[in-house]
Design brief:
globular
């Protein structure tokens, strides 16, 4: 039988107080970020811009990624975010550096951000739900091995509750006398608006040890963010509240998406308009309008991973009803993607075998080149299973990434995928002689296309499946398309 008091004792932060508070007088002149991905790169670029007196070094073992960040043509950096290339150009070579020399950057820095990937486990205990923390542990061991002076280590990756304790345990058992403070500083970035989210955040959350040394470490990070963020938007908590807040925030947002998507199916059956329903309920001040846009389903690296992590944690504590509640959000999202692809097959007279279907968009949302968990991947996979021939256009995603995404699913061989999918660099070429078009990403440019020209080039009847509800239905139907939106 579980003793609730034992659980509470286990969850209570118990980081030991260092013998002396060496962090009170620590001056941050050098920052190292381990991980040059979607979080580390943009975050460090903003810090370098706003704190020109601090040297910021982003390190990664992936030589190709670092080379891309150092590309003389700054428009070709590996992460596409509106405004990011200009900010990198301003600071790169001045106080912003990208390097594969991880040890040197760790040794020099007083403050180290860990911003590496934490994918969902594909093996062992917690497979399919728990976060795989092997990269986090490798970072901690590398920091412990290299460090000769006291360090503040900041969790920037999305992590399950109590990960800070594991990092602390690794760092404190090196036996070299170096003291460490662990902070949790989760990111709340929406891809596509990451630069604005960093420049004007709703809040900056910093969790740390509730000791004198821990509070000093927190203040060091607060001082950095306060260079451009109002202090009243910087929230400090204990480290575990910070870790859990990130998972919970994403779970709440994803829940709203799945909720409106569930209603979209009901709207289609009853003759209601999901856009009108969303507008009506969004005007309720208790609810608000954000994340009530019906679509083919949410994607990205965070929502699904964080919800599954929350499910796993809940099950670990025997909270099966709580786990079932959050898991339903994922189930609904998967249903929406499958429903969309089934509707394409059904509408095209119950077969798409040998038919050309054009997918406009592959990224999981507009203004990013990130494709992780994109709805397009799963819709494409379902259509290829039905022997469809797919033509894909996305303004920021290349064919190599598209083939990698499909290959990662493991449904068929790379050669089989190549037979069923081709990539076009021009949207009009992608749509030519297609039986149907499916809009998978809400890129602004899609709404401005010459849809009469596209219609004239297609086989008839010409079907258009708007997975993001971005087109004007009346105008599209007036041209001659058979239009199918979400929730209408």
């Amino acid at each position: 039988m579980i003793n609730i008091n034992q659980i509470l004792i286990t969850l209570r932060p118990n980081f030991s107080e260092p013998k002396a508070n060496k962090f009170k007088e620590m001056k941050i002149t050098s920052i190292c970020c381990i991980g040059a991905g979607y979080v580390g790169g943009p975050t460090m670029a903003i810090i370098a811009q706003k704190c020109p007196e601090i040297k910021v070094t982003v390190v990664d073992l992936n030589e190709n990624r670092i080379a891309a960040w150092n590309n003389p043509d700054v428009t070709k950096i590996p992460i596409y975010e509106p405004g990011l290339s200009e900010i990198v150009a301003e600071s790169r070579g001045r106080n912003l550096f990208f390097s594969t020399n991880v040890d040197a950057a760790i040794d020099e820095a007083q403050l180290i951000f860990i911003s590496v990937n934490t994918p969902t486990k594909t093996y062992g205990s917690g497979k399919g739900m728990a976060s795989d923390l092997k990269y986090i542990e490798l970072c901690a061991r590398q920091i412990a091995k290299v460090s000769k002076t006291d360090k503040i280590v900041v969790e920037k990756s999305t992590l399950p509750v109590r990960t800070a304790q594991a990092i602390k345990s690794i760092l404190d058992n090196t036996g070299n006398g170096v003291q460490f403070q662990i902070l949790s500083n989760p990111e709340f970035l929406a891809e596509g608006t990451a630069v604005q989210d960093l420049l004007n955040p709703d809040r900056v959350l910093i969790g740390g040890d509730q000791t004198v040394a821990g509070q000093s470490a927190i203040e060091s990070l607060v001082e950095i963010y306060s260079k451009w963020v109002s202090v009243d938007r910087i929230l400090t908590t204990n480290v575990w509240s910070s870790e859990l807040s990130k998972l919970t925030a994403n779970a709440f947002l994803a829940q709203r998406v799945s909720s409106i998507n569930a209603i979209s199916e009901l709207c289609e059956k009853t003759g209601a308009s999901v856009d009108e329903v969303a507008l009506a309920i969004g005007m309720d001040s208790r609810i608000g309008p954000k994340f009530l846009k019906a679509s083919v389903g949410f994607g990205g690296s965070c929502f699904q991973k964080d919800i599954l992590n929350l499910v796993y944690i809940s099950k670990s504590f025997g909270l099966h009803e709580v786990a079932d509640y959050w898991e339903q959000v994922i189930i609904m999202n998967d249903h929406q993607k499958n429903r969309f692809s089934k509707n394409i097959v059904k509408t095209l007279f119950n077969t798409v075998s040998g038919k050309k279907i054009t997918l406009l968009g592959w990224a999981f949302k507009k203004d990013t080149n990130d494709t992780r968990e994109s709805a397009a991947i799963y819709v494409a996979d379902n259509l290829i299973n039905e022997e469809a021939l797919l033509s894909v256009y996305d303004p920021k995603v290349a064919i190599d990434q598209i083939l990698f995404d499909l290959d990662y699913l493991g449904s068929r061989t790379l050669e089989a995928n190549k037979k069923h999918i081709n990539f076009q660099e021009n949207p009009y070429d992608a749509c030519k002689k297609a039986h149907a078009i499916a809009i998978m990403t809400e890129w602004d440019e899609f709404a401005s296309y010459d849809w009469q020209k596209i219609y004239d080039s297609m086989l008839k009847p010409a079907f258009l499946f708007d997975g993001r509800n971005i087109l004007n239905r009346k105008e599209i139907e007036k041209i001659g398309f058979i239009y199918k939106g979400i929730g209408n």
